[in-house]
Design goal:
- The chain is of the alpha+beta class and 274 residues long.
- The chain is built from five helices and ten strands.
- It has helices spanning 2-19, 95-106, 183-190, 208-211, 250-256; strands at 73-76, 82-85, 119-123, 131-133, 169-170, 176-177, 198-200, 203-205, 219-224, 227-232.
- The strands form five sheets. The chain has a two-stranded antiparallel ribbon. Strands 3-4 form a two-stranded antiparallel ribbon. The chain has a two-stranded antiparallel sheet with strand order 5-6.
- A hairpin with a 7-residue loop joins strand 3 (119-123) and strand 4.
- The chain is globular, with a radius of gyration of 21 Å.
- The termini are far apart.
- Mean pLDDT is 90; it is low at 4-18.
Amino acid sequence: MKKVMLVVLIVFAAMSMAMAQDVLGAHLVYGRGCVACHSPHSGARGNGIVTADATSGDNALWGSDLTPYYNQTFAFGDSGNYAYTAPASSKAHDALSDIMLCLSCHDGNLAKNGMMKGSTVETIPNANGGNAPTLLGNDGGAAGDYKNDHPVGPLAIIGCGGPYDWDCTIDATGKMTAPAGSKFAQFQLDYGWVVKPAVYNLQPMVTCTTCHDQHVMNVWSGKINNVQGDYTTSFFVRGYYNPGNAASNSAAQFCRSCHGGEANEMHGKVIPTT
């Protein structure tokens, strides 16, 4: 009996270890952890990458080579109508630079990052299965095709009052606000306000980190239906996002954070997030 109990305990411990997942998830980068992106010494050269970039690592201790991206233009989304041009150098707390930082690992076209395998560690839930591509410019189609990727950059502006937008307002600083009694305010009670648009030319702009929190893959802490808690998320999405639950509307609710015209509230319905 003691031997049986010992075996059971060992199996249980192994299962517990297997189920436990660091919140960085895939961004642990095969055990390298934070230094895969933020090299504490010498920037990209500290990660063994040969670069002539005199400013390597000066912004966020970035540990990838950014030189292939400087001044490059990417035709994102909707037939390529949302062009984004990377800056000539990396700047701290700059939305255009932040997009370039993400591309330096997630592009796979101009520069291939040896640490990236090109697909998510998470499988696509429900009937689809499989793994989604993680390299935007090298996703199995034509190399350098970004037209099938969500727009980011100066042309990817979030608006208010249009047929596809919330009944919000944009204040003098360029931030979206929810007037009292608006349907946008009701949505924030039902789902929260989880996205983080950047402000560019006094307009809310979409960047990579508008939708994704690169530091937390599987859990989001916030209020849903005005109840504070820790909620399931996937793919580093910045909100309650659980498409693996067929009864949940959380995935649609996340998209409605910006696409208000498709929200329940804009159609006269108040439906709790499930």
